[in-house]
Design brief:
6-stranded parallel sheet; alpha/beta; Rossmann fold; 2 domains; globular; Zn_alcohol_dh; Quinone Oxidoreductase, Chain A, domain 1
Length: 339
């Protein structure tokens, strides 16, 4: 086996290329995964443009290897790892807590102050490469019904599942999702699977038409949004005015869920929360939702495949990060590092 592999290395804002890098070794407690699919996320784009907050907080630095939405097959195990993982098809948690602090001990390792994030934070290399090394404890096995395409959609799906559950709606309820991007559409799919009537609001006619094609006839712009009572509103967008709009649109005693992040601070009048008796929930990370997302995909309760517009090779990563689009109308681009 070659001692090097191909990986996309981001060396600075809008600067990156496929390089030959050393093949990772399975350290004690870790495995090496042959990557079969990796999704490109909005976070990756922020690193590409240089806007990502972690770069300015010291949590990340160039050069770096992106990619935190992935699926593959375990090809090597380190000391102390069950050899039964060899040959298993897996995906993995992005958030790698230190497993010793108070937050980790309470089951909230995704909020660990010292956490690494695969392809994002703390120098932990990501999956836009032929191989990836991760702790064995972070793995989730994939059943036969969840192939590499679905497996690489588990991480964004876990975020969306948590947002949908936080909305607390079901049959007889009506929910509104602000922002029909990948996370917004996945959240809408999980809300619909829970029995809710789901509407989406966005800016782009193309994305709204795509949402309609997924079976969501209630896809609106702000100007056309009907005056309906919404029992829950999920902000999956990136505009600074959406958090306040969510509170304005939700029914009294309803719930607002915040999973989108704006590029600048957003303002929200907490008096409106109090006077409307609204519950507000923030969602960070897919970690607590990964296992149930795999189950939902495997059973067919949620089918996110239409969201993948195209699958391209590592050589196209730079163009994708720069905004070039290919394939269908879906919001997600997948990378197959084997191409």
């Amino acid at each position: 086996m070659s001692s090097t592999m191909r990986a996309f290395v981001l060396t600075g804002p809008r600067e990156g290329a496929v390089q030959e890098v050393p093949v990772p070794e399975a350290a004690p407690g870790e495995v090496v995964v042959d990557v079969e699919r990796a999704g490109v996320c909005g976070t990756d784009v922020e690193f590409f443009t240089g806007a990502m907050t972690y770069l300015h907080q010291g949590h990340a630095a160039y050069p770096m290897r992106l990619g935190h939405e992935w699926a593959g097959t375990v090809s090597a195990v380190g000391d102390g790892v069950d050899p039964g993982w060899l040959g298993r098809r897996v995906m993995g948690d992005t958030m790698l807590g230190d497993r010793t602090c108070r937050r980790c001990r309470k089951g909230h390792q995704h909020t660990c102050e010292q956490r690494q994030e695969v392809g994002i934070r703390g120098g932990r290399h990501g999956a836009l490469a032929e191989r990836l090394a991760v702790p064995a404890w972070s793995l989730h096995a994939l059943p036969d019904a969840v192939d590499a395409v679905l497996g690489a959609l588990v991480e964004p799906g876990g975020n969306a599942l948590r947002a949908a559950r936080a909305a607390g709606v079901g049959a007889g309820d009506r929910a509104l999702v602000l922002g029909p991007g990948t996370i917004g559409l996945l959240t809408a799919l999980f809300l619909r699977a829970a029995g809710a009537e789901v509407h989406l609001m966005g800016l782009d006619d193309g994305s709204l038409a795509f949402a309609g094609g997924l079976g969501f006839p209630g896809a609106w712009t702000r100007e056309t949004l009907p005056d309906l009572p919404f029992d829950a509103v999920v902000d999956a967008g990136g505009a600074a005015d959406l958090p306040a709009l969510a509170v304005d649109l939700v029914e009294p005693a309803g719930r607002v869920v915040y999973i989108g992040l704006s590029g600048r601070p957003s303002l929200l009048d907490s008096r409106e929360l109090v006077l409307k008796d609204v519950t507000a929930v923030g969602v960070l990370s897919a970690s607590p939702g990964l296992a149930d997302t795999i189950t939902a995909y495997g059973s067919g309760a949620v089918d996110p495949r239409p969201l993948v517009a195209a699958t391209v090779g590592l050589d196209q990563v730079g163009a994708v990060l720069a905004g070039e689009r290919a394939g269908g109308p879906g919001p997600k681009i997948h990378i197959d590092p084997r191409r």
